[in-house]
Structure formats: structure tokens, C-alpha cells
Design goal:
- This protein has 231 residues and is α/β, with parallel strands linked by helices.
- It has a single domain, classed as Vaccinia Virus protein VP39 (Rossmann fold, 3-Layer(aba) Sandwich).
- It is built from 9 helices and 8 strands.
- Strands 1-7-8-6-5-2-3-4 form an 8-stranded mixed beta sheet, with helices on both faces.
- A hairpin with a 2-residue loop joins strand 7 and strand 8.
- Helix 2 packs antiparallel against helix 5.
């Protein structure tokens, strides 16, 4: 584990500002979508912008202009929809297993006319069976701890691809629990990209997929917490 230079937040926020009109439409669509299903916490566009849109945009310097992305446990489409708007060359799959969220999210995607976005309503282990190592980037925000999350995401990323996880103040505790065993999933050691936002220190964890993930991963969801893969 190592810490890289802080993300160039200024450039990321400029990119978000250049797409503000479309991103604001997304905020408003999220407010409507929240009435159908619990997609995210805040329910007003201004708070969504400050707490969610800008946070998702912080990762833009880590993204390519083109490629296949899966947003695991997407909820209301964060970060996937933000990335799809700012980087139209990306092909983004929004993955969630809760049908009512998927229905509401599809309505948002349709209202925004996002042709580079697909809503996928299934569990991550199901997608790993159908499209194993089919993505250049697997990403997640506010899903679960780093260890279990890496088990869910690593089978989805192609060799040479990337895993990205948005994390908060417990990130070191989560990573230390795994230690140096990431190679069991085919991953290199994590790299931390810190960034300050709204007075809080946040971090994006990045893994490189160095080799094929063993076929036994991901396991049944009940096993993720009960029997950690690194023990």
C-alpha cells in the first residue's frame, strides 16, 4: 500500500463545471427518482451537487476517455452517471440487485438520454458469471469494506484493468486487515489517492488487475463477511 500525490481536484471540478447543466439535470432527476425508491440520502439538488456529484467527479483524473466501466452497487447511479455525462466515450454499466432501484434508475437514464449507459439488475456474482473480466474499470462508492469489495469487483475487471473504490476515514483500517494478500484476487497492492472536499479528507483506492482472478471468486454473498478471503 502506498499513497500517491493528491488528485488534481481543480481539474476535476473544472470538468464538472463544464458539464454543470447536464449534471444538474441529473440531480433533479435523482430527486424525482428518490420518490420511487431510496436511491441516495439527500433529497435536494444543491446538497446532491455538493455531497455526491463533486465527490464522484474527483475521480475523473483516474479515468480514461474511452473504455468499459461497471459501477458496482450503483444505487442512484453514483458515480457511474456522473462519469457517463463527463466522459461520453465511456461505456458504463450501472449494476444493482434491487429491482425497484433499477426501475427508478432506468427512468433517470432515459430522462437524461444517456446512450452510453446500461442498467444491469443482478448481483455482482451473477454478472461475474455472465461477463467475467469484461470491464476495463470496476468501481464502487459506499458499498462495503475494502476487502469484501475487492472480492466483488476483481472478477469483473479484465487483466490490465483497474478497480476504484471511494473511501473515508476508515480506509487504512480496512486495507490493513488484508495486509499484503491482494494477489490472491489477482490484484496489485492498493494505491491511495487523497483529495479534500467540503472540508473533509477523502480517498480513492486504486488496484491494478495483474492476473486472472481465481474462479472461486466471488463467493456466495453470505461468505463475504463470515469467512474473509484473506484469512
Amino acid at each position: 500500500m502506498r499513497t500517491a500525490e493528491p488528485l488534481p481536484l481543480g481539474a476535476a471540478l473544472e470538468e464538472a463545471a463544464a458539464n454543470r447543466e447536464r449534471l444538474w439535470e441529473y440531480c433533479e432527476a435523482l430527486v424525482v427518482g428518490n420518490k420511487r425508491a431510496r436511491l441516495t440520502g439527500p433529497v435536494d439538488p444543491e446538497t446532491l451537487w455538493k455531497e455526491h456529484i463533486l465527490d464522484c467527479a474527483a475521480a475523473l483524473p483516474l479515468l480514461p476517455r474511452e473504455g468499459r466501466v461497471v459501477d458496482v452497487g450503483t444505487g442512484g447511479g453514483l458515480p457511474g452517471v456522473v462519469w457517463a455525462i463527463c466522459r461520453p466515450g465511456l461505456s458504463i454499466s450501472l449494476l444493482d440487485s434491487v429491482s425497484r432501484k433499477c426501475i427508478a434508475l432506468q427512468g433517470i437514464v432515459d430522462s437524461l438520454g444517456l446512450r452510453n449507459v446500461t442498467v444491469v439488475c443482478m448481483r455482482s456474482e451473477e454478472l461475474a458469471r455472465k461477463n467475467r473480466e469484461g470491464f476495463d474499470i470496476a468501481a464502487a462508492r459506499a458499498v462495503t469494506a475494502a476487502g469484501p469489495l475487492a472480492e466483488l469487483m476483481s472478477p469483473l475487471a479484465a487483466v490490465g484493468g483497474t478497480l476504484l473504490a471511494f473511501k473515508g476515514p476508515r480506509v487504512h483500517e480496512e486495507l490493513d486487515a488484508v495486509g499484503e494478500k491482494w494477489s490472491r484476487l489477482g490484484l496489485g497492492d492498493p494505491v491511495l489517492y487523497p483529495y479534500p472536499l467540503d472540508g473533509k479528507e477523502r480517498v480513492i483506492v486504486r488496484w491494478t488487475k495483474e492476473k486472472t482472478t481465481p474462479e472461486q471468486f466471488p463467493r456466495n454473498p453470505a461468505m463475504l463477511e463470515r469467512k474473509p478471503w484473506w484469512r
